[in-house]
Amino acid sequence: MWKRLKGLPPSSSKPQKNDTPITLSPEKYTEAMTTPASHRKLTSDVPVIANFDSAHLTIGAGVAIYHIATARVVVCYHSVDGYWFLPKGRRDAGEDSGTGAEREGFEESGYRNRLLPISLRHRQPRAHNPSTPPSPFVTESIWTQMMPVSRSSQYILFWYIAETLPPELEDLGTRHAEKENGSYQIPTPFPRDMTLNERLALEGKEYEPVRHQDTGVDEEERLYESYLLPVEEAVEKLRGTVMADVVRRGWQGICERREMEEKGAPAE
Q1: Model pTM greater than 0.70?
Q2: CA distance 54 to 154
Q3: Is 58's pLDDT higher than 90?
Q4: Rounded to an integer, what distance in angstroms lies between the CA atom of residue 233 and that of residue 191?
Q5: How wide is the angle at C-alpha 105 spanned by C-alphas 102 and 108, nearest 5°?
Q6: How many whole angstroms separate alpha carbon 137 and alpha carbon 253?
Q7: Cβ-count burial of 219 within 10 angstroms (0-12 exposed, 13-18 middle, 19+ buried)?
Q8: Which of 66, 108, 157, 182 could cross-link 145 (Cys pair, CB 3.0–4.6 Å)?
Q9: pLDDT tier at 228 (50, 70, 90 boundaries)?
Q10: Cβ(73)–Cβ(97) under 8 Å?
Q11: DSSP symbols for the chain
């Protein structure tokens, strides 16, 4: 159940410090920018310099939501157009991207969720707080995509990793929605001092995450169906997209976190 997927190198939660400039010939640059993603190895693209004012930039967030105990992940299906995808959408004005990912995940899939700190390679500095040792696990975005909206507008999409909520928080969210006429409640973050094994102990062996009905906010989202699928099956359905790698790398980070905790993960 907790096996890693094949084909991924070990991760590290340490920030990457190699800032050696990348030099590409004009021919290689053109090839990298024009070859469709489905026809080339899925790696980060060539760094770019671009500037957009607020009137020409849209920021979105998407999420892979795992039920860790059963090694499954939430995948959506468009009931009319017939394609599989992970929930995503624009964040609201004034909303953090991570919170937007959680909310969009709930609205498009019906599963309440919260960001899950995992073992992840990244380039962000650690917060300087002498009284609190830094955690080796983070909730940084695992992939970022940049797509044009029009000739003058840009869309930036951050992909995050999350988990379905434990029963107690699920019940709190339901009671809040009943009391507040269906309004969305931001979930309590994953506790800093909780291990994955301690988190799993909050569920009974037969516990099944709740899928809420009619959580879509418009007619388009009401066409979405959602399923909890085994990780490998989800990767296959999303094959050829960044979303497949979001699922693969997210599960890798979860498995590595558990291994590190069982060995006694050192503070960094």
Answers
A1: yes
A2: 10
A3: yes
A4: 30
A5: 145
A6: 9
A7: exposed
A8: 157
A9: very high
A10: no
A11: --PPPTT-PPP--SBP---PPP---HHHHHHHHHS-GGGS-------------GGGEEEEEEEEEEEGGGTEEEEEEETTT--EE--EEEPPTT--HHHHHHHHHHHHH---EEE--B---B-PPPP--TTSPPPS-B---SEEEEEESSSS-EEEEEEEEEEEPPHHHHHHHHHHHHHTTT---PPPPPPTT--HHHHHTTS-TT------SS--SSTTGGGEEEEEEEHHHHHHHTTTSHHHHHHHHHHHHHHHHHHHHHH-PPP-
Mean pLDDT of the chain: 86
Indicate the residue type of 230: P
Amino acid identity of 119?
Answer: S
Lowest average pLDDT, out of 41-50, 83-92, 146-155, goes to 41-50
Residues 6+ positions from 91 with CB-CB distance below 8 Å: 59, 60, 61, 97, 99, 100, 101, 104
